[in-house]
Design brief:
The complex is a heterodimer. Chain A has 25 helices and ten strands. By secondary structure, chain A is of the alpha/beta class. Chain A folds into two domains: about 190 residues, P-loop containing nucleotide triphosphate hydrolases (Rossmann fold), CATH 3.40.50.300; about 350 residues, no CATH class. A seven-stranded mixed β-sheet of chain A has the order 2-3-4-1-5-6-8, with helices on both faces. The longest helix of chain A is centred in the middle third of the chain and has 43 residues. Chain A is globular. The N and C termini of chain A lie far apart (about 70 Å). Chain B has a six-stranded antiparallel β-sheet. Chain B is built from two helices and six strands. Chain B has a single domain, classed as Ferrous iron transport protein A (FeoA) (SH3 type barrels), CATH 2.30.30. Chain B is globular and about 25 Å long. The relative contact order of chain B is 0.35. Classes of the chains: A alpha/beta, B alpha+beta. At the A-B interface, helix 3, helix 7, helix 12 and strand 10 of A face helix 1, strand 3 and strand 5 of B.
């Protein structure tokens, strides 16, 4: 099998390109000797199987950041047939430096000039034939986003792979610095690139005048976030109801009669355990999909970098920087990739402080728990505001934690961030990204959920003599045992069981509730609405938000920090904070409402 | 033509970079984004009076903090 590695600077559309050529076949793979996971995909090119590896985006070689070191180690150890370097054509003048450094490796290289469409808009013209000849590298021009230029790319890669033999770099060369390469870059640009001297005040600059306005910028940002949540609810609720209706109908019309003949306990496990548990989680798929669709727009449009820019003043007061803010926003999808994203930070203290606050980001798994409770206990017109309050609590916990501990993790890492031009996200890319994210969500959920749901079912149905989920069952006894801790914060025995499973993965919580109560989604809603009031529910949600995110997150913190003490500290801190916040909320709300 | 630091530029002003008095790691990252001696750099805006700065160099726009910008010396051309 042939092996091809994808390289390039951040913001070149390298991952979009990778997703385009590999479709949905990409997998996260572990590599021997690598500390990180890299995306890989196997594809048939011409007559040979080719393995594509997406390496992290880098600026410079030799590397100083973690990502750059990963790339170096990879290049040093893995035999490669071909190196594909993705270049952002609109910024070609400063991307050539990296290309020249990579040329020192003397590997067969294909240069992909991406964002051809944008380059045209900006009036950047590249004489590909000439540049390719000067560099001694093959070169194609594409638009990864709009899918232009791919036939030429496939033709070129086939030609290059046809007579390639895998080779390993014999020791990394002494890389020339960008400064040493500057004269060469300037000569190449002068010879084969046409760049407009002065940028006309394009749409980007007009938009920035509004979005980065020195006092309107932040209110606009929060308003956009508010609209996002409104949109998710407005579009998501009917879809969720429809999904629920379909699942219940399927159970009653087909599944129940089909399983009639099975022994009662097995029937219970299959229908009330696995089907209801998994089904309840499945109803949240439309909401999660919508969330990622909207987040993709925010990210792809280039607005996210601007949000980091706006928030840096605030973040720097807490010992963090704008990047930490972007990571927290990323954590709203899933905490795990956000934690891995802190690798771009060079200061260890800044990295640890960011890792301490990221788990407070309200991830999509927790979102699903909140959507369930909010729909159950609050009026539709209150729903978006309640959710917004939880997002604010999420930020408050993250910022408060950073503020408290900034002294211990004091750092002076400089902060620079690229501000890309605004881009129109394409529908295709929006759906592809959201689809991949949703797959990850379902993958993570299904890893735990079936096992989790069966465990909950066992705990709530044994010993068999006891009434399901009553005080005499295993779950009931556990709940009773933990009651002194959870009673003061208004969380009853049944919800405590759900919380215990939530420690493994928040995806299980709602499914576990369905099993604990032995009801399907629609009946579960009614039962909880009767037994739990809004103060208890809000306290439960706060606890779910703040206490340890999930086992995967804990494992990631351990792996990324390489420090067990820090991992334990992070766990204890989030548990402690969760309890104290819930105690204050619950007791004062009870006192006020009384 | 007067010499000053990047942090002192007003929005719309362009300066030619004359000196980069910054630590190695940041220096290399700035080079990678196209910031180097002899290049013109334009101030676009700042967020609040003490906030980070938004500058343009060639086709690339970056934001950086005031502390770092103070160590980038420029001569104002317009």
């Amino acid at each position: 099998m042939k092996r091809v590695a994808l390289l390039g600077m951040p913001n070149t559309g390298k991952s979009t390109f990778f997703n385009r050529i590999t479709g949905a076949s990409a997998r996260v793979g572990n590599w021997p000797g690598m500390t990180v996971e890299l995306m890989t995909a196997k594809l048939l090119i011409g007559s040979s199987m080719v393995e594509f590896i997406d390496l992290p985006g880098i600026y410079d070689l030799p590397g100083l950041s973690e990502d750059e070191k990963v790339v170096e180690r990879f290049l040093e150890t893995m035999p490669l047939d071909l190196l594909i370097v993705v270049v952002n054509t609109t910024q070609i003048e400063r991307q050539l430096g990296l290309l020249l450094q990579l040329r020192q490796l003397q590997l067969p290289t294909l240069v992909v000039l991406n964002m051809a469409d944008e380059a045209q808009q900006f009036g950047v013209k590249v004489d590909i034939e000439r540049l390719s000849k000067s560099l001694g590298m093959s070169m194609v021009s594409i638009s990864a986003k709009y899918g232009q230029g791919y036939p030429a790319f496939y033709q070129e890669i086939q030609k290059l792979l046809a007579d390639s033999t895998a080779s390993t770099v014999q020791g990394l060369p002494h890389f020339l610095s960008h400064e040493e390469l500057a004269p060469q870059v300037d000569a190449l640009i002068k010879q084969s690139v046409e760049v407009p001297l002065q940028l006309s005040p394009t749409l980007t600059h007009k938009l920035d005048r509004i979005f980065l306005h020195h006092w309107l910028g932040l209110p606009i940002f929060f308003f956009i976030m508010y609209l996002l949540f409104q949109g998710i609810f407005l579009l998501g609720t009917p879809l969720q109801d429809g999904m629920e209706w379909i699942l219940t109908a399927f159970k009653e019309t087909y599944l129940a009669p089909l399983l009639m003949d099975l022994p009662k306990p097995l029937q219970g496990l299959l229908l009330d355990g696995i089907y209801d548990g998994v089904g309840t989680v499945a109803t949240f798929i439309p909401m999660i999909l919508l969330f990622f669709l909207f987040m993709t727009v925010v990210e792809d449009s280039g607005y996210l970098s601007r949000a980091a820019f706006l928030m840096d003043v605030l973040m720097s007061k807490m010992g963090l920087d704008g990047r930490s803010f972007v990571m927290i926003l990323m954590g709203f999808g899933c905490n795990v990739p956000a934690l891995m994203g802190t690798r771009v930070m060079q200061s260890r203290r800044l990295r640890l402080l960011s890792m301490l606050v990221i788990p407070f980001a309200l991830c999509s798994a927790r979102l699903q728990v909140f959507l369930f409770f909010i729909a159950t206990l609050f009026k539709p017109e209150q729903a978006p505001l309640v959710l917004l309050s939880l997002y604010i609590a999420s930020f408050a916990a993250a910022f408060g934690t950073a503020y408290l501990f900034k002294g211990r993790f004091a750092n002076s890492e400089p902060f620079i961030l690229e501000i890309p031009p605004y881009r129109l996200p394409t529908l295709r890319h929006m759906f592809l990204r959201s689809w991949l994210e949703l797959q990850h969500f379902i993958g993570r959920a299904s890893n735990f959920i079936v096992v989790g749901v069966i465990l909950v079912w066992v705990l709530t149905h044994f010993p068999p003599a006891a009434d399901p989920a009553s005080a005499e069952t295993l779950a009931g006894r556990l709940g009773h045992f933990l009651a002194p801790i959870f009673e003061p914060i208004g969380i009853g025995a049944q919800l405590v069981i759900a919380l215990m499973f939530g420690f493994v993965a928040k995806e299980i919580v709602v499914g576990a509730l369905a099993v604990i109560y032995g009801l399907d989604n629609s009946h579960l809603t009614q039962a909880i609405a009767q037994q739990v009031d809004w103060i208890q529910a809000y306290s439960f949600m706060l606890f779910t938000l703040l206490y340890s995110p999930c086992l995967s997150t804990v494992a990631t913190i351990r792996q990324e920090s390489q420090n067990l003490r820090f991992t334990i500290f992070s766990l204890l801190w989030s548990f402690g904070l969760a309890w104290v916040v819930c105690f204050i909320f619950y007791q004062s709300a009870r006192w006020l409402v009384r | 033509m007067s010499s000053t630091s990047l942090a002192q530029l007003k929005p719309g002003q362009i300066g030619i970079i004359t000196n980069l008095d910054i630590e190695e790691g940041l220096y290399r990252r700035l080079l990678a984004t196209g910031v180097r001696i002899g290049k013109p750099i334009e101030m676009l805006r700042s967020i609040f009076s003490h906030g980070p700065l938004h500058v343009r160099i060639g086709m690339t726009e970056i934001m950086l903090r005031r502390t770092e910008a103070q160590n980038i010396k420029v001569t104002i051309t317009s």
